Amino acid sequence: MQENELKHGSIFTHAFNFSMIGTAVVDPIGRILKVNPSLSHILGFTENELISLTLRDITFSEDFVKLDDYISQLLLGKISSHQIETRLLHKHNYGIWTLLRISLVQSNEGNPLYLIIQVQNITERKKVEERYFNFIERSSEAMIIISNRKIQYINETGLKFLNISEKEEIIGKSVIDFIHPDKRNISVNYINRVEAGETIYRIEEIFGRVDGKFINVEFTAFPVYNGEKNDMHVIMKDISEKKKTEQFLLNSEKLNVAGQLAAGIAHEVRNPLTAIKGFLQIMDRESIGSKMYFDVLLSEVNRIELVLTELLLLSKPQNTKHKFINLESIIEQVISLMSTQAILHNIEIKKEINTDTCMISCDENQLKQVFINFIKNSIEAMPNGGPIYIKVFKRDNDSILIHIIDRGSGIPAEILKRIWEPFFTTKEKGTGLGMMICNNIIENHNGKLQISSSPNGTTIGIILPLNK
After folding, report:
1. What is the pLDDT of residues 300-358, one digit of tens each?
2. Band of the pLDDT at 65, cuts 50, 70, 90?
3. If phi over 0 gives left and psi between -120 and 50 gives alpha, with beta otherwise, what is residue 325?
4. Is the sign of the CA dihedral 105, 107, 109, 112 positive or negative?
5. For the Histidine kinase domain, which residue ranges apply (predicted)?
6. Torsion of CA 198, 150, 97, 99, to 10 degrees
């Protein structure tokens, strides 16, 4: 089509001239043939000034490479139209962000005649976007933008959140890959709802980090229309500590209920239990009845007494007698107490003190109870014998660290995560209260208990405050 045809096509000319969208007709080599008033207004040039220029002249040089590539694809027939955000140059030499829609007009023979380029000024929108991105980049909460279920953006907090060093490690990856396998079906339902235009508030999810660890998160997701469909903007908060606190409170509540029940029935149960046990022992001595039956009954009565005793330890505050004492002397006494049992199991208990400061304020008997319990566990973990190490370190100026290390087969992960639950035990005669009692004792000493385990053994870490 020649230029005079453009001038005399009355319908085209009317629509072209009065369109609110800036429009240009450009030949295949990029020369501007015709522009409408809206485009002149956007760029600040007169129509005659623009007709003397090329598309390259009015496009930022760093943006033109990508624009030129799409135009080449249009001319080769690989695509029929394209939309791109790019910067055009105003007459007064400043950049204008624009949305360009480019389509190709061909002759009847299929040869390219000219390009029709429609231009919308989106500078204000880009400024808003820039302010928004500056805001979310500095946000203290993790923020992710997802399009077609692939991650398009993540802020700095999000990188730390997922233990990622560079954004390139996650950009372009499917968000589904980062969701716990057990939660993916539910998560896909949430994604469908957001893509349909719904906002999802404060949903708990399990998200995977790149190091393979899973964390509990609370997320809010809302749709943002991008001109074609809804992208998904996600705000995430790490609630792992909150979940731990909830679990701790739940365990505490279990213990509280158990303690109240134990305290309420202790006198009612213990008095008849003492009578039953006494008569059983008398009958056993006088050989009345089967010896095997007596052994079974006495064993079960002893177990009931043990459970009641441990429940009562948890049901009421203990009358602790704190005094300043050298931790090394407590450890030596415990080793002495446990030495006979250790020798019977071909176990050697080795002490290693790596600090000259071991004075702590404590209830000596309660700490002995803790050490004895853990050493007994270590002995039971090594049926073939071996060493148990008790190592004491000065952790910092305010605390001391005691490690009790065995070389047993370790505690499986699924058991380790339940080890603090009351009444959970893997021992045939265990009550499932020993770990809770030890933890309570250490916490009452303003300390902290840690456990790590592998197939090569288990390490109990006890942190206690120092007396300075």
Report:
1. 677 677 666 655 555 554 556 788 888 888 898 888 888 888 888 899 999 998 887 78
2. confident
3. beta
4. negative
5. 264-468
6. -70
Where does 3-121 sit in CATH, by number?
A: 3.30.450.20
* End-to-end alpha carbon distance in the chain: 94
Q: Which CATH architecture has domain 243-315?
A: Orthogonal Bundle (1.10)
Residue range 109-164, pLDDT digits in tens: 888 888 899 999 998 888 887 887 788 777 778 888 888 888 888 888 888 878 88
Strand partners, 401: 393, 463
DSSP β-bridge partners for residue 101:
83, 118
Give the distance from CA 428 to its chain's centroid. Answer: 36
127-238 folds as: Beta-Lactamase (3.30.450)
Q: How many CB atoms lie within 10 A of CB 423?
A: 14
Q: What is the mean pLDDT of residues 225-248?
A: 76
**CATH architecture assignment, domain 323-465:** 2-Layer Sandwich (3.30)
pTM: 0.42
pLDDT tens-digit readout, 259-270: 565 565 555 566
The number of helix segments (H) and strand segments (E) in the chain equals 14, 17
Write the CA distances from 26 to 50, 65, 119, 165, 407, integer angstroms.
11, 17, 13, 45, 79
The Cβ-side half-sphere exposure at 419, using a 13 Å CA radius, reads 19
- Residue 270 sits at the vertex; the CA angle it makes with 269 and 274, to the nearest 5 degrees, is 125
